[in-house]
Amino acid sequence: xxxxxxILGGGTGGTLTANRLRRVYSDxxxxxxxxxxxxxxxxxxxxxxxPFGLAHAEDIVRPRGRQFHHGIDYVKSAIDxxxxxxxxxxxxxxxxxxxxxxxxxxGAVLVPEExxxxxxxxxxxxxxxxxxxxxxxxxxxxxxxxxGGRLVVNVVDMPIKCPVAPLEFCFLADWYxxxxxxxxxxxxxxxxxxxxxxxxxxxxQRLAGMLADKRVELVTEFNTxxxxxxxxxxxxxxxxxxxxxxxxxxxxxSGAAYVGRSPGLGDSLNFVPTDEHTLQSHAAPNVFVIxxxxxVPASKAGSVTHFEGEVLVENVRRYLAGESLDASFDGxxxxxxxxxxxxxxxxxxxxETEPLPxxxxxxxxxxxxxxxxxxxxxxxxxxxxxxxGLLPGRDIxxxxxxxxxxxxxxxxxxVSRKD
Length: 419
Description:
Layout: E1 3-8, H1 12-24, E2 30-36, E3 40-42, E4 61-63, E5 72-76, E6 79-83, E7 88-91, E8 96-98, E9 101-104, E10 108-110, E11 127-128, H2 133-145, E12 149-155, H3 165-180, E13 186-191, H4 201-213, E14 216-219, E15 224-228, E16 233-236, E17 241-243, E18 246-250, E19 253-255, H5 257-260, E20 287-289, H6 302-321, E21 333-340, E22 343-349, E23 358-360, E24 366-368, H7 373-390
Parallel strand pairs: 1-2, 1-9, 2-5, 9-20, 11-18, 12-13, 12-18, 13-14
Antiparallel strand pairs: 3-4, 6-7, 7-8, 10-19, 15-16, 16-17, 21-22, 23-24
Helix pairs in contact: 1-6
């Protein structure tokens, strides 16, 4: 009997999962259906470049349907809820789609309305976000008019998609204003709820030093409770304030709204409780989760989704075959961090291992925890790899889901920089 796998979400995780499954199974063995509410697949790492004129919003968006292999059914519809008891997905148009295996791949969504004042007076005038194509384009226009004053980059709370992107924005802003010849007229401030620049101590120390070198003020443990766009103030729950002339805010994130309408599926933030090693949901044995939708303790980054894909597809196969699941996903994450002036830094880590100096993916490769032009080129080249390698579900020689240990060395007290 032909089994049906239904995938909720046609972004990075949903697309690569569908394509990997189709490479494993013929259409006479399983049916694959992907459901998403729109036909716009956004290359999200490209959003960072849009405000600085280094990319255009329309160039990083492609139709979702064109990213799927032949034999994958793409359903354009919003999702009302999932019924775990009947193994079915209810769509907002009233139709129902049953499944044998469900894959939750609906990512994280911005919920700016959850922060007092954020979408009030000043929104898209003095207060912007670059975490959407529309916001990134509007911010680009605002930056081109900005001739001096205090620019504040604020992370409201964690978790967020691509946790290093706000730091990258600070580094690129430093470069951008230097290029315009007005860097001395601009005060850059990075405001975060974390107790440092990043979540991992070694990387946090390195990145905090880079912020200081680039004259970016770092304000930590600032939990934003209100944004006063008209008055130009971020107001923390403890009463502290940070003033601004232009604010770049990364809003609160949550899981997809339908998760909250599906009894037993999600947590209080609409993320899906998931086994961090098998990627099987805690809600039901035939439900798996990939990417930002999961509540696993890994970064909500595209690389994590890529590395999860290999394990998740193997576990869907094992589940359908009645075999024990593979518990090998280790939280592997790597991130290119654009640092401006045609350089970037690369970090590679997992659940247990800090970002370490060395090289990736082996002793001969890209430098880790060090600025280099090679890493910058790697970040630029990633877009082509994304569309032509990652999304089609291809295996990449020398790159596996497990974090490599070759090429890494114990961190020294002071990590030297490389050009």
